[in-house]
Amino acid sequence: MKSCVVTANYACDPNKVWLYLTKPTLNGWRRDVSSYEESDDGLKAAEKNTDGSETQIVFTRKEKPRCLSCNFQKGKISGTFTALLLGGGDATSVECTLDVNGLGLFTKPEKLLNERLEMLRQTLGARGLPPQRVGERTSRQSEIFRVAARLAPSGPAGHRSPSDAARHLPRIGGVCLAEGGK
Q1: How far is residue 98's CA from residue 177's CA, in Å, rounded to a whole number?
Q2: 61, 67 in Cβ contact below 8 A?
Q3: Can you spell out the DSSP letters for 27-94?
Q4: pLDDT at 49
Q5: Per-residue model confidence as pLDDT tens digits over 133-175
């Protein structure tokens, strides 16, 4: 069995993310699914894939819009998928867990899960951040520079020579931020 956990953030309400996760053919967001049929009670579903294969899904937990969990079978490949949706208003964080048994396309479940979450991000208006592994963080260079500038010691008052001024410019790892890395 192979397992992975991936987190993605979206700039929209959890109900909207939930709707797309439970309806793979909505607005054609899952390009690999040609049709989707769900049972009357909503606990069983079948995805017809564009490659001609079919995926059988049995939902084990559906708590709108917070949790979605299911077992799936696609030929000799089987597994479980769980999505936890956190947030509200205009921000949603989704933590997805995928456990897979079998061979074939699912030999790299993290890559597959990232591809699906990226499809969802593009459908939701590309306003979210790309999917991330749990524990991974995004950092913007400008934030690093801003923090370093605030922590820089202030020099003595009065006139300073250029070499004296250079000693008091913000630095990270010996690299002067104000002088463009010199």
Answers
A1: 42
A2: yes
A3: GG--TTEEEEEE-TTSSEEEEEETTS-EEEEEEEEEETTTEEEEEEEETTEEEEEEEEEEEETTEEEE
A4: 95
A5: 444 444 433 333 333 334 444 445 555 555 554 555 555 555 5
Which single residue is written with the structure tokens 């009357």? 40
What is the rounded distance in angstroms from the CA atom of residue 114 to the CA atom of residue 130?
8
Taking the C-alpha atoms of residue 108 and residue 100, their distance in angstroms, rounded to an integer, is: 9
Q: Is the dihedral of CA 98, 99, 105, 110 positive or negative?
A: positive
- Listed in sequence order, the residues at least 6 apart from 166 whose beta carbon sits closer than 8 Å to its beta carbon are 176, 179
Tokens standing for residue 80: 């479980």
Residue 108 DSSP symbol: S
CB of 36 within 8 A of CB of 23? yes
Angle (CA) 98 103 106, round 5°: 35
Q: What average pLDDT does range 107-128 have in this prediction?
A: 82
Prediction pTM value: 0.66
Distance (Å, whole) CA 95 – CA 102: 23
Q: What percent of the chain has pLDDT over 70?
A: 66
CA distance 26 to 49: 14
